[in-house]
Write a structure and sequence with these properties.
Layout: H1 14-40, H2 45-52, H3 55-88, H4 94-101, H5 103-106, H6 109-120, H7 127-130, H8 141-166, H9 169-177, H10 182-210, H11 214-220, H12 230-239, H13 243-290
Helix pairs in contact: 1-13, 3-8, 3-10, 6-8, 6-11, 8-10, 8-11, 9-10, 10-13, 12-13
Length: about 290
């Protein structure tokens, strides 16, 4: 029996490739993260607890994580709408809009913060009309939310857009021909396919928003107990040469962020397994109907 010819390997063997991968991952990710926990361990248990549960720090946790989750949820909805418009419709300036989606990726975060502040301040282009209505965006928690939405939107759009491009419109047409309304078609045909990508975009937007600093400090106002984010608390500790206190707060942020992302990824895997079990039946039915 003739053996099939083996293709030449572009990369080295598994052992060497895995060694390079783990070494690079350790140097770039694992060792710096471990250093945060090691540095914070120099505090006693009581001092660590006092550092991470101070009222000012707890208020910053609530603002950072709460606004990050809310911004990611808002971006999931409007990012889906924007991706849908870019994929399904043709309109003047479409390529320009598509390019502008990536602007928060390339724009320095400090520039974004200054631009948003100039726009939503009391004398800004939009702020001068919003503040008389009782809507204060700049220098408050709402300004933090606006900044986090701005920097997180591209993650959702660019995650959902390729899935929408590969989605067959024949499935929607088949659902419509069977009497399904638009909402039924979206809920039972489109959303199950888009859900893993949406959750991935949500997780990426949340992860970016939790650690955002540059675009937030200009528009937040940085008022203690009101609009002070946790990264700013860490910077303040470092400026006071309280390295142990700064790494203690950072370790809490790392732990909570990891647990939230782990929960999101677990939910995504559960959804993928649930919909993956019904995919073969849908595929066979579609083939039979086509035949």
């Amino acid at each position: 029996m003739n053996k099939a010819p083996t293709l030449p390997r572009v990369l080295p063997g598994f052992g060497l490739s895995l060694g390079f991968t783990l070494t690079y991952l350790s140097l770039m990710v694992l060792i710096p993260l471990a250093a945060v926990f090691i540095r914070s361990s120099s505090l006693s248990a009581a001092a660590f607890w006092d550092a991470v549960t101070a009222p000012r720090v707890l208020a910053s946790y609530q603002l950072s994580f709460g606004m990050a989750l809310l911004a990611a949820a808002i971006n999931s909805v409007f990012g889906l709408l924007l991706a849908w418009a870019l994929v399904r419709y043709r309109f003047p300036g479409k390529k320009l809009v598509d390019a502008l989606v990536d602007l928060p990726f390339a724009l320095p975060t400090a520039v974004a913060g200054i631009a948003l502040t100039a726009l939503y301040a009391g004398n800004g282009w939009l702020g001068r009309y919003l503040e008389p209505l009782g809507i204060k965006v700049a220098f408050g928690p709402l300004g933090v939310l606006v900044a986090l939405i701005f920097i997180g939107l591209p993650f959702v759009v660019r995650t959902v857009q390729p899935v929408l491009e590969d989605l067959e419109t024949e499935l929607e047409e088949a659902a419509t021909s069977l009497g399904a309304h638009r909402w039924q078609t979206f809920r039972h045909v489109i959303l199950p396919v888009l859900q893993p990508a949406l959750m991935t975009g949500f997780a990426l937007a949340f992860a970016r928003a939790v650690g955002e600093y540059g675009s937030v400090i200009f528009i937040a106002g940085n008022i203690p107990m009101v609009s002070e984010i946790t990264p700013l608390m860490i910077i303040s500790k470092l400026e006071q040469y309280d390295y142990a206190g700064a790494t203690a707060i950072a370790s809490v942020m790392l732990t909570v962020s990891f647990l939230l992302l782990l929960a999101i990824n677990g939910l995504q895997a559960w959804n993928a397994r649930r919909h993956g079990q019904s995919a073969p039946r849908t595929h066979r039915t579609t083939k039979g109907e086509t035949a």
